[in-house]
Amino acid sequence: MAVRLFARPFDPWALVQERERQLPLERLGACSVFAGRMRDFNEDEDVRALFLEHYPGMTERDLERIVAEAETRWPSITCEVAHRVGAVEPAEILVLVAVWSAHRVAARDACSEILERLKHEAPFWKRERLADGTERWVERNTPGQ
Amino acid sequence: MAVRLFARPFDPWALVQERERQLPLERLGACSVFAGRMRDFNEDEDVRALFLEHYPGMTERDLERIVAEAETRWPSITCEVAHRVGAVEPAEILVLVAVWSAHRVAARDACSEILERLKHEAPFWKRERLADGTERWVERNTPGQ
Amino acid sequence: MCRGRQVTITVLYFARLREDVGRERDEVASTGDVQTVGDVWRGLHGEPPARLMAAVNQAHARLDTPVADGDEVAFFPPVTGG
Amino acid sequence: MCRGRQVTITVLYFARLREDVGRERDEVASTGDVQTVGDVWRGLHGEPPARLMAAVNQAHARLDTPVADGDEVAFFPPVTGG
Lengths: 145, 145, 82, 82
Prior knowledge:
Radius of gyration of chain C: 12 Å
Oligomer: heterotetramer
CATH class of chain C: Alpha Beta
Order of helices and strands of chain A: EHEEEHEEEHEE
Number of domains of chain A: 1
CATH topology of chain C: Ubiquitin-like (UB roll)
């Protein structure tokens, strides 16, 4: 398991490449990845910037708990989770969830489950800055299931 | 849409990076990727090498059809599909399916659907070479749903 | 059962809730009637708002989760990461 | 309805089926009774095996898919890509 927070933009695919150099890929035939980036729109409004608040300490613990629970449910998986915090610009990376497994069903289902739990449980809060300069807190995530 | 066959190993994450340089990522907030690699075991046997036969012409057409049908079902998606052909060694990449969308559900569901249809419809056939030097055709894929 | 005890609790607020409360933390010292997360909120702010989320010592909690001396209790609105 | 026509069809075999048949292609010339994919197979090899897959002009087909002069008909076992 690896869980990381980044205060600066990161390249999700470079993170996956770096992690794969340490993995026995001849046994992990399946890799499912989700990468989420900041869109420049939300609920029909132009969004110019985002601030991602988090709860230092709890956020890391909670991500580790979510990944550990997935590793209990799908014992064969290996996971990499990364999330941005702080000021984010459109098109920049927000979240990466990568799951390796011997078989594709476990990789796919665990990747989806970790992402959904992260979005509904982990302590992150988005504040958007709109085109007219006003700011607003995002009230809820869109449903994923 | 982009569909490619490779007779040599390719780096799936470099392909995704390359494609993203041409995409409006500020509108495509979600990216789901599946990367499949050759395992060194199958049905409890050590597998030393794989030969991936295909049907030149039809294979490309069939992958394009599968992607086009996904783009009809999920109109907002952008796809990249790549597949190996020929001689493959353990841990080398076999297949890449990457799907970008504004929303995570479309990206995830389309990625899964394209992968399953590719595995059950596209004309590829695996012949395995085992530890004792014998070869065998893989008779069927494992179920994915 | 714990009435009479001296209880000191650190209270943290996040995101929109921090702006609504107007500060990012409180220190609560009580000699008895603060036994749950809900008691902590009510002692400071009255009735809890709908969809209030909470944590005790950085683990998710509910309004009826017990609190003890030295705990860190956090209050926040629904999360929106990912 | 097409009986009496001259029909020339290219037949391709893939994977295990190519090894079973012992060659990678056939050319079929018929003056009439080859009207479907199934007819092509039966004229060459008798009863079709279970789980036989086929294509006509590089599109998936079934045993009852019609064939026409100049078609490329392919036979193969279940696919195992990905």
